[in-house]
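Example record for the data management plan.
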Amino acid sequence: MPEDDNDDSPQTWPRCPEAAAFFHERLDAFARANPRVAEMAARFREVAGVSLASLVDHWTLPESAALCERLRAIGLTETATEDGDPVWEHPQARLPRVRLLRNLAAPRLALAVEDVGRFVAANGLTVSVREGDLDSGYQEARCLLPGGDELAVVVRAGYRGFRPRCLDGAAARRLAGARAAFRDRDRCSGEEADVLARTQALVEGVIGEIGRDRATDEFFAAERDYWMARNRAARWQFERQQEVGIGWANHDHHTYRSSRASFVALTRLWRTFGFLARERFYAGQEAGWGAQILEHAISRVVIFADVDLAADELDVDFAGTVLPPRDALGTIGLWCALHGSSIAGAGMHHLEAEFDWERARALLEAAGFGVMAPFTDLPMLKQAFTVAEVWPVSPDRVRALQERGWITAEQAEGFLRNGAPGSHLEVLQRWDGFKGFNKTGVSAILRETDARRATAHQDAGPHPGKTDFL
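Corresponding structural encoding:
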């Protein structure tokens, strides 16, 4: 992984156009040879604004010396799974992996989804081979296409290999208990530190029952459900994606907001799951924020963890150093003060998923969900928020903020009358295998979505995106 980048360049990670072109050519050729796949790709885009390319888990291809040389030339390296099976992957790009088999007659395309049965039924496929137990770490259904090629549909849960997994009765009971514990965890009793302490203990216990990597996938599945319950645009989009059978298989990253005091404890929680720190973003004087990007080595989960930062804290390892109190609140600190932190009652600030950007925006807007102007519009990355779901704010929280002098009387009145911006769905499209983010663009959208700015532009009546809960 690259070193932390402290300048304004969005290219912490490289663009990999040759490698991306290889996979696009493969997918285009496969779709041309298999009209059923081309029809699926068109339907995914038309119904849900999702590109088939963003769902490709891996390719299985006939092995040859020429293909090995081609893969090396475009930047892929041969590694091994936890089972010791060889696989090719790009170490610096968000691209599919490649398996090579000597006696394979035709290419096999594998798509990653959340539920094999739902996907097969939603797309009218006939399964020729089904391997792996339901809810195990790896399930695969292979569908023979009319031209002789195979389409594989896979579900992964805390596993990077390719061998079908089993799930016995005892393991199934442990898994059910873990899911219930994550779904029903107490997010609201006590202060943020209390929630984090309870969650840390819960996570350690669940890891002891089902393992660290499986616990990661189960935890974030529960977090997505909680976030969806508080965001209408997310629920609407999820319904479209379930219509084509993919669930949230296209998720890109999960964004958590935290107070300064609890950021180190939150980072400890992520490291307990096995997340590794990736790049850090500093904006300080520019926008008063910092973000630590974390990535899980086994699951596809990426975390964007936000926190307020002062201008003189640019060189601080804020993921490992407890930040002292400040006499002011930035965008993130105010959001947490109004709603609670993301690990607690507020839930995620947003989930970002990969789309065909223009089509997804058109679908959301036609359904009545506004999409803000893109805060990143680059050759390799485009990002925009849906208009915020506006949440009511507890009068006690507003009163406490006003008494501390952190909001004005006019802002307090606006929050009580209109609520404050809560969560978003983020629409993203990537090109060239680029897996990074754009610091300057994130700074701009943080300024644009600051609750003080939002309430100053609200009318006195109810906001069209308002959700009626505290």
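Summary line stored alongside the record: Residues 1-11, 459-470 have pLDDT under 50 and may be disordered.
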